[in-house]
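Hi R.,

Here's the chain you asked about this morning:
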Amino acid sequence: MKKPQIVIDTNVVVSALRSQRGASYKLLMVIGSDKFDVHISVPLVLEYEDAAKRLIGKIRLTKRDIEDVLDYICSEAKRWKIFYLWRPYLKDPKDDMVLELAVTSKSDFIVTFNKHDFQNVRTFGLRVVTPKELLRLIGVIK
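And the predicted structure, written out as tokens:
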């Protein structure tokens, strides 16, 4: 089986920063392994940063800790420039940004908790899965 190509939605990154117990955290811990390739774009990383920094004071992580996590994701991910837009395709423009990256990077999966927000992306050959579903598919958890 070829290595899965994935795009991680912001809600998964935020969930991982909030708790070390869930599948989101486990997914981020697997970044950089040979289990999958993660793809990013500048707009998506800026959204990660904006959402993550709103957590400061609400979670144990400091601004520096959050920056370190985001720097690690950026160092391990494949980076893409988006030259065309599919918008509007989905209800939320921020979800369109995730879809555009997934299409451009020829990803297999969008990993999100909001599966219903990504209806009809099968048209692009994409599957929408939760972190737990992806971890099962790649054999990290049973």
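The first helix runs from residue 10 to 18.

Let me know if you need anything else.
M.
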